């Protein structure tokens, strides 16, 4: 009986450690995604300043993939879309930016 109890307690302890490790990994991934979103946004902004709109849009799309609530990425993508003559898509992205900036 005592041996079975020790085994059960050991399994519970191992499970607790495994869950804690998994949560730590998930937190690291979330943090990594936020960093990646910011970096791609910066790259997109650089392309936007260089008037390389297609490259800017690609990078803002990646930013949004990593952080769908990144309001300034939608706003900047809207600006990039407006210059090549895609006003409806620009307005749509500006609307997303406004919605996420109010959250």
From TrEMBL:
Q: Where are the TPR repeats?
A: 37-70
Q: Which InterPro entries match?
A: TPR-like_helical_dom_sf, TPR_rpt
Signal peptide range in chain numbering: 1-20
SMART domains tied to this protein: TPR
Keywords attached to this entry: Signal, TPR repeat
Q: Which PROSITE patterns match?
A: TPR
Q: What protein am I looking at?
A: TPR repeat family protein
Q: Which organism is it from?
A: Orientia tsutsugamushi str. TA716
